[in-house]
Amino acid sequence: xxxxxxxxxxxxxxxVIISFFFSRKNQFGQAASQFLSRLLLxxxxxxxxxxxxxxxxxxxxxxxxxLAIAVSFVFHFVMIAMVSIMFATKRLGKSKSxxxxxxPDQNARDCLSKVGIVFxxxxxxxxxxxxGVFGGEGVFFLMGYILVFNVLLWVWGxxxxxxxxxxxxxxLNPNVLxxxxxxxxxxxxxxxxxxxxxxxxxxxACNGAASMILLGxxxxxxxxxGEARSFAKPLARDVFVRLIxxxxxxxxxxxxxxxxxxxxxxxxxxxxxxxxAVCCPVGMSVSSFAVxxxxxxxxxxxxxxxxxxxxxxxIPLLVAFLExxx
Length: 326
Description:
Blueprint: H1 2-26, H2 30-52, H3 59-88, E1 92-94, E2 100-102, H4 107-118, H5 126-134, H6 136-162, H7 167-171, H8 174-187, H9 194-204, H10 207-219, H11 224-230, H12 232-260, H13 267-279, H14 285-292, H15 297-325
Helix pairs in contact: 1-5, 1-10, 1-15, 2-8, 2-9, 2-10, 3-4, 3-6, 3-12, 3-13, 4-6, 4-12, 4-14, 4-15, 5-6, 6-13, 12-13, 12-15, 13-15, 14-15
């Protein structure tokens, strides 16, 4: 499987490179990246999600999706606990009396680091990667991860940035709405009419190439090498924790789940999909949060860029490690 993953990542990387050079030559600005990002978020991804659920209903498949959602919650809670502990230790200073004292956190950058480490690019990179390796069935189970991702992003992630939670943001998130609509389609006793589902399927099929084109466009808009040097220490830490430390910790939980749920049909596929999702690089949501909540946009951009480039090496190695253990 790791060779298939590596091959698919190479295909995706070639599209990014083509987009990068084309964008550099034509000097596309922020308006182009914002348009493509919104198109993916509000049109392409939701269409792909709904069309993925247009399969024959199966009680077993519904239970398996429920398991994928439950495991995804566990994965996210473990990552949240890890980054909370990791960054809490940074805040311990020394008082004048020599005892421990909490000192102000580097909110702008540390909050972005926490969001970047926990929330992976399971959408723009995960979906085309899973689709290329496992096909539509793999994407079906990835929807469980993406649903949990979006709920916790707008609960814990926004709380980190603002100290507040807005339930309406969760309910109206286009991917959450698409998952709800997809579940409704899945539970119908019939498949959707061709003239209804085929346009959604065709638009959704653009996800892979369009996501990689967007990444190339974003990479072309800043000097990653120059900016990365100014962020070297926190950048190395965050990329290491996101791409290596978190996946290795969750690899243990993946192996445990494979043992505990050994009797569940398709458990190896489910856990392989979820493990690849947690191996993905920093999610592009960290860049969006940096802009929306006026945080360190330069650091957010470099974090996404460097982790996305490095994952071409780390994901196949981690998947090979998983295969060797199961």
